[in-house]
Amino acid sequence: MTSINAPSRAGDSLACRLWTGHRPALASAALAVAMAVTGFSQASLGKARLEVRAAQQRLAQARGDDKASQQRVALAQFAAVFMREARRLQLQPGRWADQAMGVRQARMGRAEAVALLLQAQNHEGHVFGAQEFDISSSSLKSGLFTETAEPREELVLTLRGRTIFRTR
């Protein structure tokens, strides 16, 4: 049996003789090759990590773009339904007009206040959007929901908003 450390003999192979005589040089060469492969592998690993990060960023951007696209589609669908319903209810722009209404701290009798509030009430072809509303009684004895026997009972009314009405 031939040992690696044994002196070379005539029958030993060329590889055995080279190994025995040049062991330190071959070991150094093997180490250099291993280090080069390791360095190359680490460089490749670093490059692969950068590519993964870039791919993750592109994926996050694509997901954001997808969500924004889905929101735009949903908004477009809502707008289409809204416009169909507006046409069905004949809410086209040329068929409606609007007018501002403003009464501020006006003193009036109960019957006058009721008449004014009835004008602001929504009904077919007439919509009122209140921006400000306040009503109070000028008498300490009377309330808003009950009439008193006082002949000069007054309410103080503030009503501000826009009336939208059908023209045709």
Description:
By secondary structure, this protein is α+β, with helices and mostly antiparallel strands. The protein has two domains: 1-89; 94-166, no CATH class. Helices cover 50% and strands 23% of the residues. The chain is built from three helices and three strands. It has helices at residues 14-21, 23-88, 110-119; strands spanning 96-109, 126-137, 154-166. The chain has a three-stranded antiparallel sheet with strand order 1-3-2. The longest helix has 66 residues, at 23-88. The model has no long low-confidence stretch (mean pLDDT 79).
Feature tags:
168 residues; 3-stranded antiparallel beta sheet; 3 strands; rod-shaped
Uncertain spans: none
Which whole number gives the mean pLDDT? 79
Shape: rod-shaped
Compute the separation of the termini in Å.
116 Å
Structural class: alpha+beta
Q: Indicate the radius of gyration in whole angstroms.
A: 46 Å
Biggest sheet strand line-up: 1-3-2
Give the amount of beta strand, in percent. 15-25%
DSSP strand count: 3
- Helix and strand succession? HHEHEE
Count the domains.
2
Largest sheet: 3 strands, antiparallel
What is the percent of helical residues?
40-55%
- Number of helical stretches of at least 4 residues: 3
Per-chain topology:
Layout: H1 14-21, H2 23-88, E1 96-109, H3 110-119, E2 126-137, E3 154-166
